[in-house]
Amino acid sequence: MSExxxxxxxxxxxxxxxxxxxIIAEIARANSLWVVAYGTGCGAIELRPLHTARxxxxxxxxxxxxxxxxxxxxxxxxxxAVKTLKxxxxxxxxxxxxxxxxxxxxxTINGGMYFDSYNTINQLDLYLPVDVYVAGCMPxxxxxxxxxxxxxxxxxxxxxxxxxxxIENLDYYRSNQNEVIPRWDMPTYNW
Amino acid sequence: xxxxFTESDTGQADRNGMSFGTEMTEQKEKLLNxxxxxxxxxxxxxxxxxxxxxxxxxxxxxxxxxxxxxxTGYILLQLxxxxxxxxxxxxxxxxxxxxxxxxxxxLLSFRMAKDTAxxxxxxxxxxxxxxxxxxxxxxxxxxxxDGNPRQDESFLLEDWKGPPPMLRKFDTRAFSHERFGExxxxxxxxxxxxxxxxxGEYDLSRSISGE
Amino acid sequence: xxxxxxVAFATAVLGLCYGLLLGGISRKVMARIHGRIGPPVTQNFxxxxxxxxxxxxxEHGGMFWLAPMFRLTGGLxxxxxxxxxxxxxxxxxxxxxxxxxxxxxxxxxxxxGMALGAGDSGHPHAVMAVSxxxxxxxxxxxxFSMVVLVLAVGLRTLNIGDIVAAQSGxxxxxxxxxxxxxxxxxxxxxxxxxMAYPFSIVLAPQEIPIGPPTEYGSRFLSLMLAGxxxxxxxxxxxxxxxxxxxxxNIADLVMKTLLLYLYPVFxxxxxxxxxxxxxxxxxxxxxxxLALVELIRVIT
Lengths: 191, 211, 300
Prior knowledge:
Chain A has helices spanning about 20-30, 80-95, 105-110, 140-155, 160-170, 170-180; strands at about 35, 65, 75, 100-105, 130-135. Chain A is α/β, with parallel strands linked by helices. In chain A, strands 3-4-5 form a three-stranded parallel beta sheet. In chain A, about 45% of the residues are buried. The model of chain A is unreliable at about 1-5 (pLDDT under 50). Chain B has a single domain (about 5-180), classed as NADH:ubiquinone oxidoreductase Nqo5 subunit (Beta Polymerase, domain 2, 2-Layer Sandwich), CATH 3.30.460.80. In chain B, about 30% of the residues lie in helices and about 20% in strands. Chain B has a five-stranded mixed beta sheet with strand order 1-2-5-4-3. The interface of A and B includes residues 109, 123, 126, 179 and 182 of A.
């Protein structure tokens, strides 16, 4: 009961249009993308070489943060079991706007290697708004960097609005999520 | 079967360390002699290498398991596995038990008919970690174990409602398409066809070991 | 009057920019040591702007809101109290007798406010990190206070401006040369102040994910980043004034603070992290003994 006052019972709302400093804000957001350090699937093994000297993602400003409160991007790296999907949705909703989703691998596109499994989802964008798909099984670190470059370009052009789409079409996403997740016992966060 | 044996293990391994055939005959015969005296339904299946495979009747499971655990070197239960023979309508439950002194594995299996309401006694009093294996079989195959305290809790699949997913007659592909949808434009590439195109011809009847 | 306000404002803004630039330089230097390319030196500016424009939807209580303010206030307080440039063209914001003690108080107060705010966030990781950080802080504050005592007794003043004036006249007059043990103790105590690597117990990314700023995001974090930058610059200028002769012009200031800043960066690059009991044991013994030796030498 005492936890109830921490959660917000209103439905989410879009922020007002940002007029002042919009260009500076978009450039700054593109140059400093912080990723939630959450390896959801087998693609997380391709994220580790990005820290090393060979592929160095820090030169793009990308850093890994341990908490979703401080992150901009969540990387869905591969297949998603239904159990993981529930937790990923919770992590995504805890992130602060504006936020982006990068989906790695063919399992997020059409089910990939696990297209006939009883426990993994087949299409990720029924449940989360995806900004960039990176194809491969798993994509190599160079491909992931290319995906981030595409994301940065679309942020600067003002086209990476997945999070707004999520807020506007929340009923659609929620109905899809409730179809596959039998017991939805998570609080609604105010994001 | 390409585990390297030293001479102290069997006394009969060849120089390459490969061990096919029935080199374990001495140990197998010793064990079988002891078991055949005490229990009625032991039969042996021939499997090459350092594996002894025994078929028993389901009613003698607990006495045989107890004897193996406490009076022989076979003390470590590694896995309980289940095979769904859909054509004969039986489940075959196999217990994999390991002997660290002789480095041999024992497969203890029995068959039970699916339709009858047989409940298998749980081996938790003998091996306490069997609880996990039995819960897995309960969730994936629907096999009931008598005496497992956490049997009805979900194991890996949270809130799963539906038939046990590892049964042969459960069509996972249809289930997945119906529940999670199918992306239009998706196609599968059969690698055998692909390799066949490159190699020229692919003969499935050729075996790998060349015998 | 207007000129002093303008100078103070310019000090704050330029201090912030310099601090962010130094942060970028340290990331670049660390990356080059690792053999990587590293982010551009303006990376911390991008981080600050990005965090400022993020939406803030977290609420935990009054102390949670105030804590970044405490840290910023502590940093600004130290920045205003130390003389920046003392020479033909001086930039000195506030100076009075005894301001060295006030500076030490502000440094402690900034970190304490941060600790209280992190405790209010209710996250167990934050609370754990705060207790570890305060344990470490009590040990290095001990030796730092003894060094302050050495300077007070030796130079008979607690005014930083007077301490700088006493060091004029060449390198031989610097406190580095006159009180070498005290300088060594203060340099060792400088490492945990900058959260450099053997003593980076508070923000320990592999042990307690991120420590006190765990629940802070978006605008709070931008405030904390700004506070950290300003605090860093203020500590650098303070140490430069206390031990290395102060700055007589801007070029001198920039060169000395840059070299002083690179010292914890280089130490960070080669050391792993201490455990808490190792760090406490080290900081209770080594700098305290050095400062004690100097104190005895000064008193007799």
